[in-house]
Amino acid sequence: MSAEPVLRRLAAIAILVAGGTHFDLWLDHGYRSVHVIGPLFLLNAVSAAVIAALLVWRGGAPIQPIGLGYAASTLAAFFVSVYYGLFGFGETLAGTPQMIAALAEATAIALLALSLARSHAIAPNRGRLEGRTARDHFERTRTHGA
Question: Which domain does 66 fall in, by range?
């Protein structure tokens, strides 16, 4: 098995941890009653489950960039809520759920960025036909007739 599926599966686990943390906060810690933020926490949890399932089942583009966007935007929203407030809600930087979710999101970002970088580093070789590029092949068939 190549590294990309392993990286995607590990990222899926990290995304599930982040989404699960948001669901736990929504379900058992009163976040469901917070205006705007409550529904967003539930949406975050559902989105995490869908993205993680797609990363495991399908992988590749466009799922990896979507997972990267999920993790980066969730982490960014957390820091915005800590330092500026978000929809009238201010979060604290300290706390076990905050650290678990932030670490999981940062892990997902790193894993998906690495997976995307690896797949793009390999991609130039995918356009080769017998040691030539597709353009070389086209030029040769155009000038030589086959």
Answer: 3-144
Mapping DSSP onto H, E and C, the string for 47-69 reads HHHHHHHHHHHCCCCCHHHHHHH
CB 70 within 8 A of CB 47: yes
Confirm if 18 and 108 have CB atoms less than 8 A apart: yes
User: Is 80 exceeded by the pLDDT of residue 4?
Assistant: yes
- Residue among 1, 3, 2 nearest 114 (CA): 3
Overall domain count for the chain: 1
pTM exceeding the 0.90 threshold for the entire prediction: no
Of 113, 116, 97, 112, nearest in space to 17 by CA: 97
CB 91 within 8 A of CB 72: no
- Distance, in Å, from the CA atom of 38 to the CA atom of 44, rounded to the nearest integer, reads 10
Helical residues (DSSP H) of the chain, grouped into ranges: 3-28, 37-57, 63-83, 96-122, 134-144
- pLDDT tens for each residue of 25-36: 999 999 999 999
